Amino acid sequence: MIATSSSAHTVSPEPGSGPVAPPADIDASCRVPVMVLLACAAVWLVVASVFGLIASLKFHAPNLLADCPWLTYGRVQPAQMNALIYGFAAQAALGIALWMIARLGRTLLVQPGYIVVGALLWNVGVKLGVFGILIGDTTGYEWLEMPGYASPILFAAYAIIGIPALLTFHHRREPMLYVSQWFLLAALFWFPWIYSTANLLLIFFPVRGVLQAVVDWWYVNNLSQIWLGFIGLAAIFYFLPKLTARPLYSNYLAILAFWALALSGGWGGIHSGAPVPAWMPSLSTVFTVLTAIPLIAITINLNRTFTGAMAKLKKSLPLKFVVFGAVAYLLAGALAIVSAFPQFSQITHFTLFTPARTQLFRRCSSKTNGRRLGSPALTSLWRRLASCSTSVHFPSEAFCKGWR
Amino acid sequence: MNHGPLIFLGVFFALTLSWFGLVFEPQLQLGNAQPTTNLVNAAQLYPQMRPGQARQGLDVYRSLGCAACHSQQIGQTGRTYDVTLTDPGTNRAEVIAALLKVRPRATATEAEKLVAGPMPQAILKDVAHVAATNAMAKLEPTGAKAEVKIIPTGPDIARGWGKRRSVAEDFLFDQPVMLGSQRIGPDLADVGSRLPVANWHLLHLYNPQIVVSKSVMPPYRFLFEKRKIGREPSPDALKLAGNFATEPGCEIVPTDEARQLVAYLLSLRADTVIFETPMTVATANVSTNTPAATNAPAAQTTNSVVK
């Protein structure tokens, strides 16, 4: 089925020429790769939750599993984060991104076979990386703990998935671009850039001293704000109008938000008081505060689009997820702005507030995914998975740690 | 409308901007940083490379993920200043007049006592920079000698986690630099001067509850070796008593890794005075664990002159 859909696909050189593909065919071309990505994401979510649970329990019983170096807190915790980010969030985001690119371009997914290979390779990379963390080969950089023998695999796997995604975009039959496509296209480019920069400058040709921390903060902020955030926003802008059957309130506002976020979103993450020259945290704070502009634009836009659809919200579970995702996103963004102010972050910084906030971001990008994949089984799997992510993971992590 | 290339260019531009700002530019500024002699009290260079064992210990610290619970960055929110009279000089009357201006609340008899008392005498405590500068400006023309002490302040410093804030220099030779983002446990940037005893750390790593009864820090027993006591007990064996004692006939000996880790912990100190973080420490007592070190009247180094 992979083979048929890719060979049956006639490639048109210019976007816009040729007949648009019917939605059913598009879904058929996406089904296998997207299913693989989402199913693997689901497994990783469970794995991450198990790690998270072990880590949380250790706060109550420090002696639990303490004689096994593999499962010491300092290894389980990063293993959990990496399973969650690269295993779950990244794969879920990629899966939904591929499908949206095909649907919005009204064209079949290009080379689904390669994407499946890429997805499997990605999973090999994540497994190796998490294994590396557990045996103590962690790099020591937050969110980049995977050792140097795993990250190139992830990079290659991303390329194998990303190139067909770009080709799908290029061969789209619908010349008009919707704002979700802007976000998706940006996200597709953003990841290889930040991931390669961070890996090269931290693991392969490490920079000196605190520069390492600066690069790491830059990476973490870009990954959560821009990469996961953009895919999440693409999904919100796609599903909200669709599920409420109302047009997007303003395309102009959405594009304004896009550029404003692209310009200001990549600068955050350096907290005031960090042991670096003072201009860096200042710059970071200024740009984080500037993200208020896109955030307000998005809020207005989504709110106006949504008004009057309250009745639908009660009936439609997918819509509930999308709205939850949107609210989580906006809340996370608002909290990021508030914590950019030193007065506030002095209190919350170094506490579990910060990871809780990033969780919100991730939640938004994951929550909004996985609808209408032409497969009821998948959708229900997704729902279970999404609810499991809040019910198991969030309390276990935020609350258990919070007690201390 | 085909915005594809436009989006690509725009995104490229946006990314490049933040890349230049937060990756490239910092690299230009700090990438070639060298140890400096920006120290007041010594001709020595700072920072120094960690000694070999401590360098290996950094890898143990990284590998075990201690940074998941410990930060290594002391924050500082400000400074306060103390002014101390060290020598009243010969012109007592003018000194007293100046003192009364500096401390309007004080009575003439109090000022006289101050000047007559054994030196040094505290004149102002915990004041702002301006007040300290003013006081110096008033006292100097009288021929009296006074000193200004600079004291970093902030919640981290109040908790006793360090004497001054962490600065970029402190981490110049570390690889990786693990500043940490969580404080499940205390900050460790200055732990080597706070807890300078290797044995304490060994016991603490073996089982934190030996030394901190309700600690939630995980024990690292796997960094220790349990073995039968040979002809004589090993001098390195941990001294465990009561509930924590092992079976009779056995002893607990730290492995190389444990020793390296402790060497690393002891090498973690943020107490060198550099220009970026002015503070006053008593030279005689630098690097000791006494909290009173900064108040000691001994010779002092201050790395910035209050003008």
Characterize the structure shown.
The complex is a heterodimer of chains A (404) and B (307). Chain A has 15 helices and no strands. Chain A has 404 residues and is mainly alpha-helical. In chain A, helix 3 runs antiparallel to helix 4, helix 5 runs antiparallel to helix 6 and helix 7 runs antiparallel to helix 12. The longest helix of chain A has 38 residues. The N and C termini of chain A lie far apart (53 Å). Chain B starts with a helix and ends in a 5-residue tail after the last strand. In chain B, helix 3 crosses helix 4 and helix 8 packs across helix 10. Chain B has 2 domains: 170 residues, Cytochrome c-like domain (Cytochrome Bc1 Complex, Chain D, domain 2); 75 residues, Ribosomal protein L7/L12, C-terminal domain/Adaptor protein ClpS (Ribosomal Protein L30, Chain: A, 2-Layer Sandwich). Chain B is flat and about 75 Å long. Chain B has 307 residues and is α+β, with helices and mostly antiparallel strands. Chains A and B meet through helix 3, helix 6, helix 7, helix 8 and helix 9 of A and helix 1 and helix 2 of B.
Q: How would you summarize this macromolecular structure in one to three sentences?
A:
With 404 residues, chain A is mostly helical. Chain A contains 15 helices and no strands.
Q: How do the helices and strands line up, and which of them pair or pack?
A:
The complex is a heterodimer of chains A (404) and B (307).
Chain A: H1 2-8, H2 23-60, H3 73-105, H4 112-134, H5 151-170, H6 179-204, H7 211-244, H8 251-264, H9 279-290, H10 292-306, H11 310-315, H12 317-340, H13 342-348, H14 353-367, H15 376-403
Helix pairs in contact in A: 2-3, 2-4, 2-15, 3-4, 3-5, 3-7, 3-14, 4-5, 5-6, 6-7, 6-8, 7-12, 7-14, 8-10, 9-12, 10-12, 12-14, 14-15
Chain B: H1 4-30, H2 52-64, E1 78-87, H3 92-102, H4 108-116, E2 121-127, H5 129-139, E3 145-153, H6 155-158, H7 191-194, H8 198-206, H9 208-211, E4 224-228, E5 250-254, H10 256-267, E6 280-282, E7 300-302
Antiparallel strand pairs in B: 1-2, 1-3, 4-5, 6-7
Helix pairs in contact in B: 2-10, 3-4, 3-5, 8-10
